[in-house]
Design goal:
It contains 2 helices and 5 strands. By secondary structure, the protein is mainly beta. The chain has one domain. It has a 5-stranded antiparallel sheet with strand order 1-2-3-4-5.
């Protein structure tokens, strides 16, 4: 779960490539930063590759967390633009349909989906696979 928290922090910081106290490594940091940019699509990246810890071309970054250490391999596999109202109790606004109000309106956001494989450094057979969907 620590890896999920780190990936969420990276998404929220938009283009942060380091987090104090967290060992992280990127096979290609420029590519990862470009993928995070909401204006860029993932069309030119192979997002269907399964993460293979032995092949750096199959993941975007590694994160070491915990004691004993678990190494996490994370890859952005989907990014989707979206919008919604500001809350379930509010109505979307459209000119002439409902009166404008401070609490109403459309909020734009981006869905980021990451595939994460986390395995114990001393025993790679002890592993978990997780998909994280985070809205920013």
């Amino acid at each position: 779960m620590g890896c999920v928290d780190v990936v969420r922090k990276i998404i929220q910081d938009q283009a942060a490539t380091t987090i104090a106290g967290i060992p992280m490594a990127y096979p290609d940091v420029a590519t990862f930063t470009a993928k995070l940019d909401p204006a860029n699509t993932l069309a030119s990246y192979n997002t269907l590759v399964t993460i293979d810890p032995g092949d750096p071309d199959t993941y975007d970054l590694t994160i070491d967390v915990g004691n004993p250490v678990y190494r996490c391999y994370a890859k952005m596999i989907q990014k989707q633009q979206g919008n919604t109202n500001r809350g379930y109790k509010y109505v979307r606004t459209k000119a002439g349909v409902v009166p404008a109000d401070q609490g109403m309106g459309v909020v734009n956001f981006t869905y980021y989906t990451f595939s994460i494989v986390s395995q114990k450094a001393t025993n790679p057979d002890e592993r978990v696979k997780i998909e994280l969907v985070h809205i920013f």
